Amino acid sequence: MMINSVRKDIWINSYPIFLWLALEPIVGLIDSKIASVINLDTLSAIGIGETIYFVFIWVFIFLAYGTTPLVSSFNTKNEINKLNYFINFGRNVSILLGLGSFVILYISSDYLVSTFQPTANIKLLSSDYLVLRCIGLPFYLINMHSTAVLRGLKYAKITFYSALIVSISNVIFSLFFGLYLGLGAGGIGFASSLAFFCASIYSTIILKKQLSDISPSEEQIDKPSLQKKFFSVGVYILIRSLFLTLFMAYLRNRSSLMSMQEIALQHILLQLWSASYIFVDAIAIASQTLIAELTSKKEQYQKSTLQKELLLVTTFISFILAIITVIFLNNFVELFVGDNFDLFIDFQLRLLVAMSLFIGCYAFLWDGVLLGLDRPKEFSFLTVASSIAGFLVCAYLLRTQNTISTLWIGLNVSLMFRSLLGYVYQK
User: Fold this and answer.
1) Helix axes 278-296, 260-276, angle to 10 degrees
2) 3-state DSSP: the chain helix, strand, coil percent, rounded to 5?
3) For the segment 210-224, what is each residue's pLDDT rounded down to a tens digit?
4) Rounded to an integer, what distance in angstroms lies between the CA atom of residue 284 and that of residue 83?
5) What DSSP line would sit under 35-100, residue for residue?
6) In the 8-state DSSP scheme, what is residue 183?
7) In this predicted model, what pLDDT tens digit does every residue of 31-83 receive, in sequence order?
8) How far apart are CA 1 and CA 342, in angstroms?
9) Is the pTM above the cut of 0.85?
10) What is the three-class DSSP state of 256?
11) How far is it, in rounded angstroms, from Cα 130 to Cα 266?
12) Read out DSSP for 318-335?
């Protein structure tokens, strides 16, 4: 009976998050499809621009990963004042970080694009895409914080509606600005900015509505302590995100030194790879809330049962993903590039991508579990160590084999290291 109840909690909290996560990579793939219809240069330019953009996004991912478990732990009658202050403080930080990031990206866009050593045309297209997309950075971070709070309050369904707004509006705007008006890469970037503007308005309004029913008490709170808690968790997640994004950027950057087709292939493979992880990432994010709640209530037996069920579900999903990848990866790639150019993936590369999904599922799971257990230090360390390991393997192998397969070998080593460390730390 206990196991059935745990499984039900996992499902109820996971499926809205899964739907939410599913939409963003799908939109990214649609953008890639629109870009490929224009030309190969536009697709390559968006690949470079997205790499730079998401370095900034992932650096600030602590606004989501750090907020959800903390909100969940404060969501009790005795912690209402702490909850209200924490939410308001996090929103203000999000606004400031968003504005600061916009200024930095706007000023340095040409230089950052140049580090990828693109052709003159791709450099111009990438800069246009990056500048117009970074306009939406403040709205992206505001929406990130609001949806993280809603997940911590167990309003996961609402976060799905926010993602739906982003997805639908982004596709419409991309088709309009990118294809219809002929603005190409820049139009696609501007479309994303408008989409997150719409979503941030929606999520902010809904969050205020949900919090309006919560009446603060007269109990005094230790504001400096809460701020310290916010930033201590944030710093560890920031370090983790920085190393992870630099490693992923390295994988993209190294492919940019290869042929034009290999640049496009790596971009599409990483898009598909990210899209595949939504199944386990949904479970990992849901586990943050569930484990944080059980930890605050000191329900040790239920927490142990939950962790075992999470591992079982993850193993099943990772196996299915790996099999599908080995068999159908070429078909997925062909679906998004059509007849514009030939991108064939040999068995070795398909196997490497499949292995990364099987191994990586556990890495994502332990991320969520460790945050739910309030172990941000361990959460940060395992990613830092694994990213360094993956980089060293890539750097060593690339001396003799400058291929995409080599990059995926490094990624697999990194994910394996991260998975093993996560398993040890969550005990």
Assistant:
1) 40
2) 85, 0, 15
3) 777 665 555 567 778
4) 23
5) HHHH-HHHHHHHHHHHHHHHHHHHHTTHHHHTHHHHHHHH-SGGGHHHHHHHHHHHHHHHHHHHHH
6) -
7) 777 887 777 788 888 888 887 887 777 777 767 767 777 777 776 656 677 77
8) 53
9) no
10) coil
11) 19
12) HHHHHHHHHHHHHHHHHH
